[in-house]
Amino acid sequence: MRSSIRRLVLAGSAVALAVGSVIVGVGVGTTQIADAQGSPVITNSCSYASNGGTSPNGPRYAHLCWLNFAGYSDTAASNGIPYVEKLPHGYTLSFTLTRTNVAGDPQPQVSAVTSPTPWPSAAFGRDAYVGISSSGNQPILYSSPLEVSLSHKVAWRFTLSNLSLKTPQGVAMKQWKFVAADAESTNSGESVTFTTSGGPSGSRWGPVTGADGNSMVRPLSAPGASTAGEPSLRFKNTCGGGYSGIYTPTVTCVGNSANLVGDLVLKTLSPTTVSATDSISMSGQQQGVAFAVITPGGLTLTKTEAAGPNPITSAGQQVTYEFTVKNTGMESVNVESVADTQAIAGEKLNPGGTCPGMSAGAPQLLTPGQSFNCTATYTVTTADIAAGAVRDTAQAMGIPRVPIHGQSISYETGNPILSCKGSLSIPVKTAGSVTPPAPTTSAAVVTPGLSLTKTEAPGSPNPITRAGQSITYDFGVTNTGNTTLNHLAITDTQSVAGETLSSPASCPVTSLAAGASVTCTGSYTVTSTDIANGKVTDTATATATTTTGAGVTSNPATLTIPVVVPTTSPSTVTPTTKPSSVTPTTKPSSVTPTPVRLVTGPPAPPSSTSSALPIGLAIAGLGLGGLGYVVIERKRHNANGHNNEVA
Asked: Is 396 found in the same domain as 315?
């Protein structure tokens, strides 16, 4: 009997050891399987430079939102990493980032790093576009130095494909600008090539020019000179070994030993695909690139008859027009004028209109989402009576602006933005014509309406990684009805009972005219309950009242932000800058610097799969315990003279 028991225990122990080994193996291998699968979407927020630089350099720095590549890895990029970059006021840029090894071996490791790079002679982040990483953003894709001797060129390419810029309503924008930049410097033995495609009527690169006409590139001609169609240049020592392809789809910058600093910064219109190819040919060399969106402005105009006859019955009658101008873009816009053109040549509005550009009107500054109304009058002429109607078209013109050191500068000097055209036709009915129906005495039908969108403000964490983080929400409210609304308020309800906004939603105004919009803000502090739930979800509604006191409620707007808790922290090797002890004629190759940021070893397995390891070890332990029992039993029986049993 004991022999049978021992045989049973021995067999069970063997099975437990085998099963435990399999489970342990599965637990260890799951990370590799998961890593081999497609990358999840990475959501980041772009960031602006805090100033242009000391010269000042960095054209349009207040309008370039630099993409944040936090979360990048070479392994994931080899298959393509889907990114969503959050821009101001609910706009988003989506794309897929792919790395391809083009030529040479071995290939350097690339990391996403903060700006500026350690190389002290790099202009990007030092002499231009300063402060991009003040909030920790990682805008530069930067290669580590190769610690081997090179006798050939090594090249790699980053491709941003399926580029799409969308409005807060998810509508793809047709006109927008994308920027590519050499984010370190291109020296002797190095080059960078940018390509663009998919834009309207073909894509091409142009320089990013400042208000003074200067750009960030250098032509092939001698310092101080310029090429046809190219303005004077800000950095005279960029691309010293060759600069070609400006105003074409492909631009190449080649370095030389005489010109060390200065960075190529280019723009292209509405591309679907952009690529940057870096190359090096000497040990210790490094290259970096960065990308940005020039945040666009936008205006709309609607025109209505505020007062006057409709239909018109005689010359000399006066019509009052109301113009509503709204900022639908991502930049503040200074509306300079509202121009109204009558269908009959030579006829004009009466003097004294309140619109910008009219005799009594002053420029109006609109923040994103804001609108204003203005009026003008027109006196009907005999030519209008003969034409059978009074027809005219209006259009607003503005220049996007942002505050800089307490002032405002234009967004594109010489390139103002125009609104859509607002047209209106008022019919003429004179004696002898068909008599129109008698007007009713009933009051005009009032149809109030309120719409709400909710987005996460730029700079807020997405995904959330820990309790205590603060989320800022933007609530976009629009009066979609035909009457003024008062007592505007936002109510926000968290999905977790009892949790509320840490800073309740507040609006800059509490009254909205018909068609007007406003952006309200509020904040929320993440709790441990949110972390346990794996997300933060809440729903907001906007409420207001009409002038008669009737209540109006918007649609509910729900937003969910995921929680991703890091399981490990990657080890970081302290970056070694390119040596500056040698006179910087080239990036020195005699000293082998360490990588800027090198993540060593595979990432820790996800928490959802790591539980297999302890389970397997526990089962294997049961097997070992069973074997111990068999050995002890056999020794005891041998001591009693029972040595003929088979264990």
From this structure: yes
Closest CA to 573 of 249, 184, 111: 111
Residue recorded with tokens 């490990």:
568
For residues 249 and 110, membership in a common domain is answered with yes
119 and 168 in a common domain: yes
Structure tokens at 424: 């209106």
Residue 582 near residue 588 (C-beta atoms within 8 A): yes
User: What is the count of structural domains for the chain?
Assistant: 4
pLDDT band at residue 55 under the 50/70/90 scheme: very low
* In the predicted structure, residue 162 carries a pLDDT above the cut 70: yes
Residue 612 in this model has a pLDDT that exceeds 90 = no
Q: What backbone phi and psi angles, to 5 degrees, belong to 230?
A: -110, 130
Q: What is the CATH number of the domain that holds 354?
A: 2.60.40.10
Name the residue range of residue 68's domain.
42-294
DSSP β-bridge partners for residue 427: 389
Alpha carbon 332 to its chain's center: 18
The model's confidence at residue 237, banded by pLDDT at 50, 70 and 90, is low
β-strand 42-45 against 81-86: which pairing, if any? parallel
- Supply φ then ψ for residue 400, to 5 degrees: -60, 140
Question: Hey, how many other C-beta atoms are within 10 angstroms of the C-beta on 404?
Answer: 13
580 lies in some domain: no
CA 18 and chain centroid, separation:
51
